Amino acid sequence: MADAELQQLFAAGKAIEPDVAAELQSIIRLHSISAEDLFYKWESYCIKLDVDAGDALTLDNVRNLKKNMLDALATAATAPLAGSASAVKPKADRRVASTPRAASGRGAGGDMYGMLDGLMPSTPASGSKLNRRVAPGSAGGSALRRRMETSKISSSPVGGMSEQLADMGGLPSFNDRPNPGEVLEVLNGQLASATPPAAPYPEPRVKLTAASDQKKMAYKPLAMKLSEASEILDDRIDDVATLVQQHHKLDDDVFGNAARQGTTEIVAVGRVASDAAEGRLNAASLVLETSRRTGMGFRVPLNLEALPAWSVFPGQILALRGSNATGNEFVVQELLPLPLLPNAASTGEALAAHEERMRVRDPDAMTVDEEEGTPPAPPLTLFFAAGPYTADDNLDFAPLHALCEQAADTHADVLVLAGPFLDADHPLIAAGDFDLPADLPDADAATMATVFRHLVAPALTRLATTRPHVTVVLVPSVRDVLAKHVSWPQEAFSRQSLGLHKAVRIVSNPMTLSVNEVVLAVSSQDALWALYAEELARAAPGDLTARLCRHLVEQRHYYPVYPPTDRARLPRTGTDDGLATGAVLDLSYLKLGEMVNVRPDVMLTPSALPPFAKVVESVLAINPGYLSKRRGAGTYARMTLHPPKIEGDGLQGHCVFERAKVEIVRI
């Protein structure tokens, strides 16, 4: 394998050290893989380490990657032997003589809330107390921790969940987390941060306006028809073809069927797909799927050898210029760029009204000297976070409480929380292995709404009560056990019986809304991981995360991947089978996931990828990370938004990416 290919993939713009290059060559020869496959393994390894792939290219790290690959190979080789040995007695080790409740000692006390000692399927605990200050290692710790110290015979029969959590070892307490409040990344660090006021603002400084029609999200899930799904996929290709024709000013006779043999150069529009039934997209399986109107739905292999650089993924709509002289493949000569949506803009009058709303309107505030002029409005503070909101070994939601405390201390104006809140992939919720609080009036009739009201809502209520100006936005997830709407795009879940403060708004998923003049787009669906897992690229410019975000902006869709990523290739969960919920797409209503009218100023895309804040095509893309990881504390994003400079009464762009300071903060 030529060193030039390694240089291009691993360290474009700087030379790879000779010993590092030799080690990479050794891995390629040892495992008989291509340099591109090795690069994908390297990126995945760096994501697990939470480091930048370019900066981490050292000899020690490459050797550690080599060791991990050898260990994985050895594990895969021994797995069939272990499986055949255990097949003799498949259920003998999992038989349980009695329920774990008798061995857990409920009366011994409570954990962080005193309500987590074992919720359904058993009768709720009667002796637990609401006490968030009990140390996890104390004698009055949670029943989960006590069960982790008991013998195997007293473990939970529901999927062996207590055994799995015990195998994870003792997780560190959230209060003992390293470097809380550490700023991991800053965008526009030259801008000043907001200074907390001397007293809370008396009323909200932002106005929320829905830019998406939430009523359309109230469709009937799990009622998809194949004919409707096919029409939606076809219409998307035809819609993009119309946009390409108008943008590039092309005649009708320029467009053609990529699957039809001919020497004439044409422009073909279609969807990227794979002709393999399973596995990752590769150059050999890459095909273009046409619509029924333009190509009778045929698929044709793509030849991209003439292009110096490209990146594609399944479901991507492309406009290609080329020809199919042999009838066997479409040889691409040019990749036509898709037109972008226009930038969001407002009139000078509207911007002035929003700035006036941002000013302190405290009647006891000092009056302004007219000769000195009106001082600039204080900047807004916005917090962005995404679930899960608690670690795998508990349901105390300590990270959420810490986030609300930070929002209160900084007098945040907006707190946007993306689900899941009660995560279906959380091992305790999946097994029903936790307790309700002892003071419930009717514990036997408790539902998941009851759990939300006692575990999640108090933190939000306390924040809204102490800071009357704050606006909290909740975005559901397909992993939320609260949501009756189980597919994406997803309707907002009902606030009935949740005990939420009036300052809390619940929106759909995805959702586009205006925060004053700022167009904010939010989707809790992890599109970035799906793009990362499915993308096929060659010499693609720019860093990985910016390229993934650019796909979303160019495709005008919050989840453009189709078919969605196989659940087995998603990050593993702590449940018994380890499989994530997945995308749960409803193809009949996939159009509701499109960006409409304008590009968002801020695009919130929570993902399992490392958190970041980047400017992509004038869009401020933010991945706040997860507030809680499976085994430790996570991150959130904090934005300081300065008021715009008003120039006249005409329309002017918002340019949020120039006046917003974004920090990725460790909770």
From TrEMBL:
Region feature (Disordered): 84-163
Protein localization: Nucleus
Annotated organism of origin: Cordyceps militaris (strain CM01) (Caterpillar fungus)
Single GO cellular component term: alpha DNA polymerase:primase complex
DNA polymerase alpha subunit B OB domain segment(s): 230-338
Record-level GO BP terms: DNA replication initiation
GO terms of molecular function: DNA binding
UniProt keyword annotation of Nucleus present: yes
Chief place of localization: nucleus
Keywords: DNA replication, Nucleus
Family the UniProt entry places it in: Belongs to the DNA polymerase alpha subunit B family.
Gene3D superfamilies to which the protein is assigned, alphabetical: 3.60.21.60
Spans traversing the lipid bilayer: none
Domain DNA polymerase alpha/delta/epsilon subunit B: residue ranges: 383-614
Its biological purpose: Accessory subunit of the DNA polymerase alpha complex (also known as the alpha DNA polymerase-primase complex) which plays an essential role in the initiation of DNA synthesis.
The protein's name: DNA polymerase alpha subunit B
InterPro entries named in the record: DNA_pol_a/d/e_bsu, DNA_pol_alpha_bsu, OB_DPOA2
